[in-house]
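batch job 7 of whatever, protein = Response regulator
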Amino acid sequence: MNHAADRLPAAPLVLLVDDDPMILGLLARTLEAAGLRVRLASSGAQALASLDDAALPELAVLDITMPDMSGLELAAQLHGVPHMFLSANDEQQVVEQAARSGAVGFLRKPIDLAQLLPAVRAGLARGAEIRSLRAEEQRLGQALREGRETGMAIGLLMERHRLDQVSALNLLREHARSSQRRLNDVARELLAAADTLNTLGGAPRK
């Protein structure tokens, strides 16, 4: 058994949404032949249902004009999945609407298969960049929140025990090490305890 092969990352998953079964089949065959995984949906409702049952795709390729739900309406409900559009209408207004929705690409029907794969690969690359930026924003936000809580806990220790900043930080770190917990978890617990004591004493912590 080749265990190394078992650890290879799965090919990118592309969600294809179009109410024309011939176009859907053509897109699927082209992308699968290039080694990509595809998930098919013939309507916006079916596409949304597929998101509830499985992992999110790395890219969604959406027909703009569909009977039950337009591609633009669907894109707004894709939980942040990067998307690109297919449309026979390339009027400026439509292209601008697609751009405002955050689309990473736009392909005009009838589809030129020579352009399909490069456009999808570019969309996947742009989608990966977007996910990376979102993850970095989340990490930064978490770090800022944790830094604020730790700073407040240090200030509380300085006030209650008449310590300088370094001594208060060292005290907090020592407690975190001895209890084998993260520094911010200890800081959050200290602030919660102070809130409880202040509430009982009628003086909420500011």
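notes: The chain has two domains: 13-111, 140-197.
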